[in-house]
Amino acid sequence: MRNFTFLTNNVDINKAPENFMEMFLYQAYLDDNINNIRKRDLRDIKKSLLAELVEFDEETPESHKTWKEKEIDEKMMLEELTDVYFFLSQMINYLYSNSLDIFSNKTREEKEDVLLILNKEFFIGDCGLTDDKKDLYLDLTEEVAKRRFDIQYIMRLLGHFTFLYGYTEEQILESYYRKWKKNIKRIGNEWRWFFCKKN
């Protein structure tokens, strides 16, 4: 895994990640093995994260689709929220690999320390933010969409957002791992391997 060799020896990808740090590493492994048609940049990742937030919203009782009656499927809600975590991980990995935002002007060791701090600080729970799910959703999408965003604030918003919908860290990590395994199987089938020749 590019740029993440300092922790890969401690990760067993045959089981679910035990914390968010491991989730970042799983995501780096997945991303390093996908051959994108064009180089992916931070704007692509942010757009993906925003798209998944919209898809999650559409599964909730607070959906913007007020004209549409839909039965709420908790399993589908969790799956869509898990997709948000895929792209949050991808965003953090991108910032790390490109020495941006909280990783700028830092040595590799200092960047590793920042990752460890992010892992320690991030939690799913009451973060003292609004309990209005619609307002929190808008706060989260607005922060992600900013050109100059605060990744720590995004993580705080997402942790509180996840808490408001009743999901735990264990549920997110287990759901992430199930989806991650499916995505790994898609490489070479639906998705192109990194080592494929381009036409």
What does this structure look like?
- This protein is mostly helical.
- Helix content is 58%, strand content 0%.
- The chain has eight helices and no strands.
- Helix 2 crosses helix 4 (74-97) and helix 6 runs antiparallel to helix 7 (151-164).
- It is globular and about 50 Å long.
Walk me through the topology:
Elements: H1 5-8, H2 20-32, H3 42-57, H4 74-97, H5 108-121, H6 133-145, H7 151-164, H8 169-186
Structural class estimated from helices and strands:
mainly alpha
Q: What characterizes the major β-sheet?
A: none
Mean pLDDT: 88
Molecular shape: globular
SSE ordering? HHHHHHHH
Low-confidence stretches: 4-8, 192-199
Estimate the helix proportion, in percent: 55-70%
- By DSSP, the count of extended strands is 0
Radius of gyration computed on alpha carbons = 17 Å
Strand content: under 5%
Number of helices: 8
Intertermini distance: 25 Å
What tags apply to this protein structure?
single chain; 199 residues; mainly alpha; 8 helices; 0% strand
In short:
With 199 residues, the chain is mostly helical.
